[in-house]
Amino acid sequence: MISRESVEAVLDRVRPLLQADGGDIELVGVSGNSARVRLLGMCSSCPSAHMTLSMGVETALRDEIQDFEELQVV
Amino acid sequence: MRAPTLLGRVDVVVGESPRMRAIFDVVHVMSRSDSSVIITGESGTGKEVIARLLHQLGPRRHQPFVPVSCALFSDTLIETELFGHERGAFTGAVKDKPGRFELAEGGTLFLDDIDDVPLSMQVKLLRALQNREVERVGSTRPIAVNVRIIAATKRDLKQLVAEGKLREDLFYRLNVLPIVVPPLRDRREDIPVLTRHFLECFARDRGFPVPELSPAVVEALARYRWPGNVRELENACERMIQTCTCGTVRVGCVAAGVLFGASRPGSGGAMISSGLPAGISLDERLMQVESNLIRWALRVAEGNKSRAAALLNIKRSTLGDRIARCGLSGDHRGGDPRSVSDACVE
């Protein structure tokens, strides 16, 4: 099972990019080997952004955390 | 830099970097001659754009520009494609068909991926270039052709000659005026001007207003490695135009591959500046830097360890020890000796 800290560490690397554009990403919860996040601010209502960011962040999480399974954007 | 508009058709952004300016100057000079040109550059660097520019700036601009991708055709098809065939030359040849050489009469024949022309066809190609005449398949009647040849390849032609995949005589026949187009990552100052150009083109095509780019997006585009070069940038711009719904392109509208693919170590990516991973091993990183630099020195020295040691300012015996410690072995002569940047990443 993955730890909340390991997910936060990866999100911390992504965050400056989003914050530079007036957005943010918040970790809602970790269950098993999956995580749920929420997009905040700018882009949070844009469907394109949801797809791009969920794909990108999920890839980053998989690269960094062994056994990471799924990222859900809520 | 924008090429002058001729006949309202040439409007090609080449870039503002010194290297592209130099190429543009040389294209102007070369466009006046009839000599063969060979354009070398990675996939997506714009070899065909340069070829069209050569054609359209020169005296042949009112004649056809005929591009042929030699990679598209099988060994046998390429012959009829280039030289044409007579009726009855083979099953299915129900009528005479002119080849691309004939179609390009008076103009320019652009042979892309010239390295994909099989050895057997290279002889015939060479004859056509030398004698300025072609014979259709199934005919012995020579047809005089007046075409300018521009060839392009993404591979190192000298290497192909060394490997026996390209005839030396054809190489020398083609290699009269060489142009080397640098990859986009080696001329990053061109990224903003190309981005603006593509965004304007796609927006105009679709009747959309040209969107603004947020500073974070500008930075991400500038940092990405662009392995697919200008073509990849063009596609990224099309995506931005298509996905942006609010008038300003923000990070969410940029392809995930560009935004986050740049995060792999050594890719100079957008996320590297955004902080460090949870923890790193200093010894491992140093070892990586060391082995990259040793590889670079060996490449530059073409495998000569004494010269590589001199480049690194260490003793020859020390270099031997370090090669063993880093687990490096084999031949390091290949590759581009200029790519020292790879050795200095991170």
Plain-language structure description:
The complex is a heterodimer of chains A (74) and B (346). With 74 residues, chain A is α+β, with helices and mostly antiparallel strands. Chain A has one domain: Fe-S cluster assembly (FSCA) (GMP Synthetase, Chain A, domain 3, 2-Layer Sandwich). Chain A contains 2 helices and 3 strands. Chain A has helices spanning 4-19, 47-64, and strands spanning 23-31, 34-41, 71-73. Chain A has a 3-stranded mixed sheet. In chain A, strand 1 and strand 2 (34-41) form a beta hairpin. The two termini of chain A are 21 Å apart. Chain B has 346 residues and is α/β, with parallel strands linked by helices. Chain B folds into 3 domains: 18-182, 3-Layer(aba) Sandwich (Rossmann fold); 188-266, Helicase, Ruva Protein, domain 3 (Orthogonal Bundle); 282-343, Arc Repressor Mutant, subunit A. Helices cover 42% and strands 12% of the residues of chain B. Chain B has helices at 18-30, 47-57, 77-83, 100-103, 119-131, 157-163, 168-174, 191-206, 215-223, 229-243, 256-260, 282-300, 305-311, 316-325, 340-343; strands spanning 37-41, 65-69, 84-85, 97-98, 108-112, 133-135, 142-144, 148-153, 177-181, 212-213, 248-249. In chain B, a hairpin with a 6-residue loop joins strand 6 and strand 7 (142-144). The chains are: A alpha+beta (74), B alpha/beta (346). Chains A and B meet through helix 1 and helix 2 of A and helix 9 and helix 11 of B.
